Amino acid sequence: MLAADFHKLLRDPEQLNEATLPLLKELVARKPAFQLGWMLLLKNLKIVNSPEFEAYLAKGAFYVADRRKLYHYLMIEGKKAVKDMDQLAGEYLSTGSYQIEQEADPQESLSDLVKSLRRKNSLKPATLNENEDNSGERNESPEFVTETLAKIYMRQGMYKQAILAYEKLSLKYPEKNIYFAGQIDEVKKLMN
User: Fold this and answer.
1) CA torsion, points 12, 14, 18, 19, in degrees to nearest 10?
2) Which of 3, 13, 101, 170 could form a disulfide with 180 if both were Cys (CB 3.0 to 4.6 A apart)?
């Protein structure tokens, strides 16, 4: 499809018919990310009441950035649709020119940052409560015992702690009493 033909269809969607359908299908097959091509193809499919419309709509909605505009383009007939399509074409074809603001002198922004940090209350160092014990010792709670901890004790050769852990576990989980008794016997064998 030639660019002139495409622009003619874009300006006057009333010219869309069965003959333009294969041309638009070929266009979106070659350039699937071309939004305007998808919009014209979908409009063409809708105008000719094609059974393929739903399938192409599902594919085309993926490639069209603003689905609300697609909906309005497909549902609104006449000159308003042409005006909307011209606006979309202008947005699509316009080269984005952005003004980049010149950043202030880096020394000024750095000095402003330092000043603002000085104005704020300085952080007070955390004080240690004398009641807290920070000697680095492990605080092992006698209630906190797991089977994994007992296995670790056993692997590290701490057999007495492993036996104590399994005994606590057998009291805590009486339904597994036989299993823990077997584990205690295994630890005792390792001790000998």
Assistant:
1) -40
2) 170
